[in-house]
Each structure stands twice: as structure tokens, then as C-alpha cells.
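Structure in, sequence out. Go:
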């Protein structure tokens, strides 16, 4: 047999074209996944150039996390219909993975922006600023709930963000209503939220009205946050502004970038009315 006249390739030649080692091809032959088209009386294996595409499909399916066992099952029952069905299935998986990667990229970009911005902030400064309207995605109401219920709400909220692809990489914050703050119930939050700079259609959103806000920063955990609120209230008196309808809190530094809760930094954004 003249392998060259028959367009045959040795195991080494075929392996080189497929960019794998010879042992991979031998193993595929042993398990019946991809066998040489010819074997001579001396045991030499020869492949056809037409088998390269079959190898590339096997390699593609492996890259898409399909097990060799499942690939074998397909190879034992090949047909145009089953191949088309398999390709549609893998296309859907690729689309989903691409969406997940894009979400992760947006998350990373947002984190980079937030941390770089935080590095230039003076956490001891209190400012009066005009803020534009912001679109927020909210959890269900969490006023006056138990710790166990709070954990459940957080879990549900995270699942919603994941399933609906709404995790923008912005920090998850909390909204507290005016009446809670007036009663000194600084941790009796009303909602969890995450900002949506590019809102997707089909979801209920909360619009944070544009207007005037007093902004300050609390260094430490929630047990001492009342001290920062008292400092903010004194500054509001000096500025001659009164408490508005909503107060927003979100972490600037938390356990992701700090090892001790005494070093955590919370941004407090108080809606105010000018007198």
C-alpha cells in the first residue's frame, strides 16, 4: 500500500496537523472515538485527511465541556439530525457563556472605576452636591424583618441579579426612609439596591430623583454609624438644609479590600431640601 497515493497520513503526520501528541490519537483509537481509516499488517496506523474535521469537532466538544463518554455516545449514533441538534445546543451554551463573560467584564470595569475613584476621596469631608437621576433595581421591602429573613432577602436578591443579568458591578447598597432616620433606626433599612447605568427593559426600577444631597463617609462598622449621622446632621444645620425622603448607603471599602471591619468605609448619601 502506498499511503501517499491514497492520501493517507501516518499517526505522527495526523497528530502534527491536529496539534496533539500521538498518544492522544492512540487513546482515541482504543476507546473507539476516532480510529485510523487503515491499519496495515505491521500494525501501522493511517488516517485520511478527511478525518481532520472529525477530530476538530471532537476537540470543540471537549472545549465546550462535553465528556468523552458523551462524545462517544454521539459517535455511535451519528446522523445529520443529531449533529444539527448538537450544534444548536452548543451554540446556546456558547451564547450563555459569552453573556456571563460580558457580565464579568462589566463587573471588573465597574470595580476598577469605583476603587480608583475611592483612592482620591477624603473620607472626613462632608459635601453638598447636586446629583442626577439614577436608576436602581430594588429588593423586596426589608423594614422590620428578622436577621433570618434578611439573609433570605439578600440571597433572593443576589439570585435575581444573576438570573436576570442585572449585576452591574456597582456596590449593593441600602435605602432607608426618612421616618426611620428620624427615629434613630439607622439600620432599619427599607430596600437593597444596585445601580443600573444602562437599564434593561422589562424590569421594575426605582428612580432616584435628581436633586441636592449631603454626602459623607462612615469609617467603621454599623455599630458606630450613628456617630457619623450625628456629624452629618450638624453639617446639615450649618448648611440650612432639611432631611429629604430617602437616604442611601453603600460600601466604598468592605471585606473585599479590608481585613478589619474597623477600616470599612460606607458612603452615606442623604437627600435634602434647601431652605
Amino acid at each position: 500500500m502506498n499511503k501517499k497515493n491514497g492520501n493517507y497520513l501516518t499517526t505522527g503526520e495526523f497528530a502534527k496537523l491536529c496539534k496533539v501528541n500521538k498518544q492522544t490519537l492512540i487513546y482515541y483509537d482504543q476507546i473507539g472515538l476516532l480510529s485510523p481509516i487503515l491499519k496495515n499488517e505491521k500494525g501501522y496506523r493511517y488516517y485520511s485527511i478527511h478525518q481532520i474535521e472529525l477530530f476538530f469537532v471532537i476537540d470543540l466538544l471537549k472545549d465546550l465541556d462535553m465528556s468523552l463518554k458523551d462524545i462517544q455516545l454521539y459517535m455511535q449514533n451519528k446522523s445529520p439530525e443529531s449533529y444539527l441538534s448538537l450544534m444548536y445546543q452548543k451554540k446556546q451554551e456558547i451564547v450563555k457563556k459569552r453573556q456571563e463573560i460580558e457580565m464579568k467584564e462589566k463587573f471588573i470595569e465597574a470595580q476598577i472605576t469605583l476603587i480608583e475613584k475611592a483612592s482620591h476621596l477624603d473620607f472626613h469631608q462632608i459635601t453638598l452636591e447636586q446629583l442626577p437621576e439614577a436608576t436602581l433595581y430594588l429588593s423586596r421591602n426589608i423594614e422590620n424583618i428578622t436577621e433570618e429573613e434578611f439573609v433570605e432577602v439578600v440571597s433572593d436578591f443576589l439570585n435575581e441579579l444573576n438570573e436576570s443579568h442585572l449585576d452591574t458591578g456597582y456596590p449593593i447598597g441600602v435605602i432607608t426612609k426618612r421616618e426611620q432616620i428620624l427615629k434613630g433606626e439607622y439600620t432599619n433599612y427599607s430596600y437593597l439596591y444596585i445601580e443600573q447605568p444602562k437599564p434593561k427593559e422589562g424590569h421594575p426600577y426605582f428612580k432616584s430623583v435628581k436633586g441636592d444631597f449631603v454626602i459623607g463617609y462612615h469609617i467603621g462598622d454599623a455599630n458606630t454609624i450613628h456617630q457619623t449621622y450625628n456629624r452629618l446632621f450638624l453639617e446639615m444645620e450649618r448648611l440650612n438644609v432639611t432631611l429629604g425622603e430617602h437616604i442611601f448607603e453603600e460600601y466604598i471599602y468592605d471585606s473585599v479590600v479590608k481585613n478589619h471591619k474597623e477600616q470599612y468605609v460606607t458612603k452615606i448619601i442623604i437627600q435634602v431640601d434647601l431652605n
